[in-house]
């Protein structure tokens, strides 16, 4: 008797447990599971699937079947895989490459030497498991699904109980196609097209067009109304798709608190460029979309789209959880705040020399105005508070110069504090800075290496927190120019260092 299943060779599930995505289940590709569920061991047949080392995937692969072990089409399994890859995405694993699968309907056990037909759109291959081998691409990395994923799978499973046009399965499919890491499958324009289609389906943006007051009473009035749509004076009243997307996002995200005005402004700018890029690609105008950014955010329209789509899905899943909703708001706020704030900080720090910021005992440089100090203080506090693992400023020269300026200020400031050694202030969080710098200079480390080592040292000593200093918020000796606390200065120095190094340092 034929047994219908799909094999996911690059996905692993826990041993002796199944994950449920009603009406589907996932179980480990091992002998015990096959015997339990089909009455025979079918692992030998699936040894044709190999890992990156050329070994059979064995129990590192996963089998997907219907819960009743009934028949399922490729489209059925594909919808299930869209949900599974979305669950991994919401956990922080966006790439879709590991979610390759193949459907089989064969007798179990299937003999290794028995010929089978592997059909595709344009060809058919007659082969057998003892000669055929299926390897992962260089861009494929194994994904582990755990029991902790069951909660999001239960939420996604509800979509199978809805009519297709009322579910989010189509949107998940578009988002899945846009998240392939493999560069030769799709172009940046293809990804933009897929993301746009995903938003159209997820948000049903056509609901947010201009609503007429009602149908005209007569045929003549209806004809006149249609004619008026095409005259220039009235045409501006029509709502384009970009505006529909903007309205849909404001309607859905607006149900939750915590949004910054800069975020709404950023969404407006992004939606215009997103729609423009989608149109250019749809109508055949090729553009270098992978090198084009939505300014001043330093992110492509595609990158922003991925973050917003994930945020929307997170909110639909657990938006009733205040802490999760706040986390999503913080994440999307960061998206539109990090770039402009970092650029402003780098610009103002680059405007003056070290002695202007911290004169010490030497001559002062150009005077920093009170307004500039207030602005920098706000931006540094904001920068420290933003959670980000962005690649946007990796090896950015302006950020490197800014953190070096902060390091020079900090070095002079700490030396003066240690020379005075005020008894009421605990300086242990920073007292190793002068010796560390001297040692690194002696080792002939580069300027960038010195700044990085000092920043990591200060992070380890928690010098970016008030508590270790044993004083109050307003301690004058720990406030630069009477405004910027040393722990805020150090926190920003650490943040700029991580931004410059990129997320691989985390």
Task: Describe the overall structure.
With 506 residues, the chain is of the alpha+beta class. 48% of the residues lie in helices and 8% in strands. It contains 17 helices and 11 strands. The chain has helices at 31-38, 74-90, 150-157, 169-178, 188-203, 219-229, 232-235, 241-253, 261-282, 301-318, 322-351, 354-357, 370-385, 397-420, 433-442, 447-460, 486-501, and strands at residues 2-8, 11-12, 19-21, 24-28, 62-66, 102-107, 116-119, 124-127, 143-144, 479-480, 484-485. Strands 3-4-5-1-6 form a 5-stranded antiparallel β-sheet. Helix 5 crosses helix 9 (261-282), helix 11 (322-351) runs antiparallel to helix 13 and helix 14 (397-420) crosses helix 16. It starts with a strand and ends in a 5-residue tail after the last helix.
Low-confidence stretches: 210-217, 232-236
The biggest sheet, with number of strands, parallel, antiparallel or mixed sense and barrel status, is:
5 strands, antiparallel
Q: How much helix, percentage-wise, in residues? A: 40-55%
**Helix-strand pattern:** EEEEHEHEEEEHHHHHHHHHHHHHHEEH
Beta-strand percentage range: 5-15%
Q: Which strand order spans the largest sheet, edge to edge or round the barrel?
A: 3-4-5-1-6
Structural class per helix/strand content?
alpha+beta
| Rg calculated over all Cα atoms | 29 Å
Quote the distance from N terminus to C terminus.
52 Å
Mean pLDDT: 90
Outline: globular
How many strands?
A: 11
Assembly context of the chains: single chain
**Count of separate DSSP helical elements:** 17
């Amino acid at each position: 008797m034929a047994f219908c299943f799909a094999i996911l060779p690059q996905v692993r599930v826990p041993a002796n447990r199944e994950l449920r995505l009603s009406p589907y289940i996932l179980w480990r590709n091992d002998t015990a599971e096959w015997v339990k569920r089909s009455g025979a061991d079918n692992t030998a047949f699936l040894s044709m699937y190999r890992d990156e080392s050329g070994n059979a995937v064995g129990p590192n692969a996963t089998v997907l079947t219907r819960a009743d072990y009934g028949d399922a089409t490729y489209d059925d399994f594909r919808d299930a895989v869209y949900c599974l890859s979305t669950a991994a995405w919401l956990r922080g694993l966006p790439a879709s490459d590991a979610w390759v699968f193949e459907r089989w309907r064969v007798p179990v056990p299937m003999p290794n030497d028995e010929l089978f037909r592997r059909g595709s759109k344009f060809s058919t291959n007659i082969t057998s498991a003892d000669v055929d081998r299926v390897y992962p691409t260089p861009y494929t990395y194994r994904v582990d699904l755990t029991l902790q994923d069951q909660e999001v799978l239960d939420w996604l499973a509800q979509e199978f109980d809805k009519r297709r046009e009322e579910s989010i399965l189509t949107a998940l499919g578009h988002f899945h196609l846009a998240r392939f890491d493999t560069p030769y499958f799709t172009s940046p324009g293809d990804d933009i097209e897929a993301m746009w289609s995903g938003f159209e389906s997820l948000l049903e943006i056509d609901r947010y067009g201009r609503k007429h007051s009602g149908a005209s009473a007569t045929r003549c009035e209806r004809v006149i109304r249609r004619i008026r749509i095409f005259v220039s004076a009235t045409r501006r009243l029509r709502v384009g798709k970009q505006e529909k997307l903007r309205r849909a996002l404001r309607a859905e995200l607006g149900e939750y608190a915590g949004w910054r005005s800069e975020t709404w402004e950023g969404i407006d700018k992004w939606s215009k460029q997103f729609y423009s890029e989608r149109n250019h690609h749809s109508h055949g105008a090729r553009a270098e979309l992978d090198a084009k950014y939505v300014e001043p955010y330093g992110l492509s329209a595609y990158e922003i789209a991925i973050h917003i789509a994930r945020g929307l899905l997170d909110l639909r899943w657990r938006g009733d959880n205040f802490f999760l909703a706040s986390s999503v708001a913080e994440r999307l706020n960061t998206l539109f705040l990090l770039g402009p704030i970092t650029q402003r900080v780098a610009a103002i720090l680059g405007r003056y020399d070290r002695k202007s910021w911290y004169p010490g005992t030497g001559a002062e440089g150009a005077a920093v105005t009170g307004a500039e100090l207030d602005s920098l203080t706000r931006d540094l506090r904001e920068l420290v508070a933003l959670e980000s693992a962005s690649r946007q400023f990796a090896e950015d020269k302006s950020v490197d110069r800014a953190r070096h300026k902060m390091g020079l200020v900090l070095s002079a400031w700490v030396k003066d504090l240690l020379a005075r050694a005020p008894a009421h202030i605990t300086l242990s969080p920073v007292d190793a800075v002068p010796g560390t710098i001297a040692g690194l200079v002696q080792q002939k480390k580069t300027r960038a290496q010195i700044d990085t080592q000092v920043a990591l040292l200060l992070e380890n000593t928690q010098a970016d927190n008030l508590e270790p200093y044993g004083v109050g918020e307003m301690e004058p000796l720990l406030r630069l120019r009477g405004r910027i606390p040393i722990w805020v200065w150090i926190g920003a120095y650490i943040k700029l260092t991580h931004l410059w190094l990129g997320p691989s340092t985390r």
